[in-house]
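ok trying again, last paste got cut off:
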Amino acid sequence: MIRVLLVDDQPLIRSGFRALLDLEDDIEVVAEAADGREGLELAREHLPDIALVDIQMPVVDGIETTRRIAADPALAGVRVVVLTNYGLDEYVFDALRAGAAGFLVKDIVPDDFLHAVRVAARGDALLAPSITRKLIDRYVSQPLETGAGAALDVLTGREREAVALVARGLSNDEIADRMVISPMTVKTHVNRAMTKLHARDRAQLVVLAYESGLVAPRTS
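nice, full thing came through this time. structure:
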């Protein structure tokens, strides 16, 4: 059973998401919160698998809520998926850096929404290739910091290769085909890379890959 916490200051949005989730046999909404502070309290109380967190909220906003969840060892099993009305804007980018596993636009169709919740619960990042493209564009206009790639020196060659393919938006199965290894071995490489780089999940690996220069932005 996938346990979900809804954190959004709009009651209509919360009720709509809850109505969809409650129809599924493998998903349970364990609590709802109207702001980030209440959301943090309920996250500690219920320890959900997924926290769906709106970016713009009163009291404590979604970015700070994400940051506090990611920094709390007691909430290590909680994966934050941020909700936005605007697509990949600056708020979403900041939320990914704060530790979000991915993001959803609020006008997402129901089937895609349910699929996204299950993807996040599996431990995969909600970063489709189109979103990765926008992350790349974010770095095209920014020079890399001197020595930014040094952090990746701790990775083996195969781990670096796996991280680069994650940053291109490939799934474990697609990476396995490229590297001619099993999906389980891919998962091992990715998990080891996350541990070495202190990345919470695949979403942060994507950010690290572009910040470090492991993957060069395509300008054409």
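cool. The longest strand covers residues 27-33. Residues 104 and 113 are 8 Å apart (CA to CA).
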